[in-house]
Amino acid sequence: MKRIVLFGLVAVMVLGISGLAGATYTMSWRFELINNPNARQVALNVANTQQELLRTTEDQSGLDRFKESLDRMAMSKAIRDIVYYDPNSESPDHGFVPVEDGWIYYAWDMDKELMRIYYFSDGGWTEITIDSGTHPDAPAL
Hints:
- 53% of the residues lie in helices and 21% in strands.
- By secondary structure, the chain is of the alpha+beta class.
- It has a domain at 62-135.
């Protein structure tokens, strides 16, 4: 009889301690978010991003998002082609890039070593030139 009571008491103590340890672990409060302004900002940014994702998934279909990502990739490639153009390479020295509200035309001028960029929108052209030969003076310290 004493053995049964002793084993029962040991079993209750072991189960009680393990249950208490588990409850302490899962029920403990962590105030790291409340007292840490960086963690609060990160949590706020995550919440805002999740809310924005829900809003965009309701507004756009998968096909619209795919089309938009293809447009962004094409624009990114065009920008890289224009900005990092190497006259000694075999890449074309001119081209058209469609944008959502017009066109961008770029052409490399071999004589003046200029990249000319033309933007067509609302029935008119806007010209931008990028000179690769001249550099501004260094700032005076």
